[in-house]
Design a protein that fits this description.
This protein is an alpha/beta fold. It is built from eight helices and 22 strands. Strand 20 and strand 21 (318-324) form a beta hairpin.
Length: 370
């Protein structure tokens, strides 16, 4: 299949709202029009940097002058007894979703192991399909690895409860039980949850094996500089597989987001075309669950205070601004495009006004900086 967008997999593609042709990155014909040779179903098995060749799974060898690695990531597998049973899935590819869809249906039950974005987005989609859904999270709160504000995690706990999802935190899963296929999930405290379908969302790991075997530097991903160059000047790398240098932030990081992959790709293309310009921008993310759109700009590291605009405990519209001193470093926006746009423009800058004014719902945000 041609390259496709991953974000819709846990949402519109799972629920049947979009078909595969609706989530392709580009129509198949556009590759030929752009003079790009697209070859699917073939793996690169080995990179010979001295000869500048790639050995393919079909026995061919392809030469290169410059090489771009956009090899992505794979799901993090967890050692749960019974996780190899039919009816147990990870969620990363179209094939995964096609398998999951065979086990969905109104009145059936699903258990999702993992309360991160993928787990919660999938829970929302399965509820839309009429399924009974339980989310088991091993940490004390959902989204603990990605969100710091208690008001935000409390909000997502509330909306999922309102939508009929059961969320169990501090849940230590011991076994996925069933004779011929998954029938229940058993926790360490003895609690058992019935399941016609089990989905495990335990994060991802960067695909570094090909680069490492070729002698390219690895450290929590394929190490790249601000121009997306690896330790080999003729090889660039982009996306989830990289440990990258974004000059907007003080230290390198591995970032799992569509925006990061797209912006890195632009940087890498410029580098390959000898028009190098460094990767230097605030990162942003989003998540769609039910009628809620969460949009995040920036990173929380080092924040010293927050300002809340709206009430996270009531309704489904508010924003949280994160500050370091009087510098805006991040924004969480729930159904608040004005706050998101404000964040895109002003994250990384010192506010020229009292930050407490951000809380005033009657004051348009753009008026605060006019």
């Amino acid at each position: 299949v041609e390259p496709y967008h991953r974000p819709p997999l846990s949402k519109d593609y799972l629920t049947g709202g979009k078909a595969i042709e609706n989530i392709l990155l580009k129509p198949a014909a556009s590759y030929e029009k752009s003079k790009v040779t697209l070859r699917t179903g073939i793996q690169v098995k080995h990179i010979d940097r001295s000869a500048k060749t790639c050995s393919l799974s079909n026995g061919e060898t392809v030469k290169y002058d410059k090489l771009a690695l956009a090899v992505g990531a794979k799901v993090r597998k967890v050692p749960i007894k019974g996780s190899d049973k039919p009816g147990v899935f990870y969620l990363r590819t179209i094939a995964d979703i096609d398998g999951i869809r065979e086990h969905t249906g109104k009145g059936r039950s699903a258990v999702i192991i993992g309360g991160g974005y993928i787990g919660l987005e999938t829970a929302a989609s399965l509820r839309k399909l009429g399924m009974s859904v339980t989310v088991l999270e091993m940490m004390p709160k959902i989204l603990q690895r990605v969100i710091v504000a208690q008001g935000m995690t409390d909000f997502f706990m509330r909306i999922h409860k309102e939508e009929g999802v059961s969320i169990v935190t501090n849940a230590q899963v011991e076994e996925i039980a069933g004779d011929k296929q998954a029938e229940s999930v058993v926790c360490a405290d003895g609690k058992t949850f019935a399941a016609d379908l089990v989905i495990i969302g335990a994060g991802i790991l960067p695909n570094t094996e090909l680069a490492e075997e070729a002698g390219i530097k690895i450290n929590n991903g394929i190490v790249v500089d601000e121009f997306c160059r690896t330790s080999d000047a003729d090889v660039v790398a982009v996306g989830d597989c990289t440990f990258n240098r974004n000059l907007f932030y003080p230290k390198p990081m591995r970032m799992e987001s569509v925006q990061n992959a797209v912006d890195q790709a632009k940087t890498a293309a410029a580098t390959l075309c000898e028009q190098a310009r460094p990767y230097n921008c605030a990162v942003w993310f989003w998540s769609d669950q039910y009628d809620v759109k969460l949009q995040i700009v920036g990173l929380y590291d080092g924040f010293t205070s927050t300002v809340i605009r709206g009430n996270p405990a009531v309704g489904r519209k508010f924003a949280i601004f994160y500050l370091k001193g009087n510098t805006l470093i991040a924004v969480d926006a729930i159904n608040s495009p004005d706050a998101y746009v404000f964040g895109r423009k002003h994250v990384g800058t010192e506010l020229g006004f009292d930050a407490s004014k951000l809380a005033d719902m009657e004051a348009p945000l753009k008026a605060l900086v006019s």
